[in-house]
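[job 4471] stage=fold_predict status=RUNNING
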Amino acid sequence: MSGILDIARRNPVVVAAATVSLIGLLTICAFFFFEYVLGYPPCPLCLDQRNAFYVSVPLAALLWLGAEYGASRRVMVAGFAVIAVVMIWNTGLSTYHAGVEWKWWPGPTDCSGPINSLGSAGNLLNSLKDIKIVRCDEAAWRFLGISLAGYDVMVSLFLAAVAAWGCKAALARQSSVA
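[job 4471] inference complete, writing structure tokens
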């Protein structure tokens, strides 16, 4: 454990970028595993929550490379700031989604709540053949009482904190070099 802490103290920018990259990549693998292996199709809010990882993981990988090859202070700070903002946004979106699942507030009308209009009876049977509704207000899976949206809150908040730490470390490292 002390070896990991020594590495984090020596080069926190690399550690922050690597942490966001690797944990973000594992999260992407996890949601694809749940979708394609376990057969849990994502709801519209789940799909929206994925976007933060699609932005943050490649950006963190580029920051990791940049930290190793001497990228400028502005690039490192801006990259970590973008990741932190995107992950804070995703934390809010995931919190909203978890609240919808717990029925604390209403969700989007396209994936939660009652179905008010089914159209004409003649079109109903044709429509039912093509419809596959995944509800945002029903958790497809829970572990220890926490849904996937709840776990996304924790992962996104952690990655936002790591990105903020990376931003702070990039500022400190570059200013001490100058």
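[job 4471] summary: Confidence is low (pLDDT under 50) at residues 174-178.
[job 4471] exit 0
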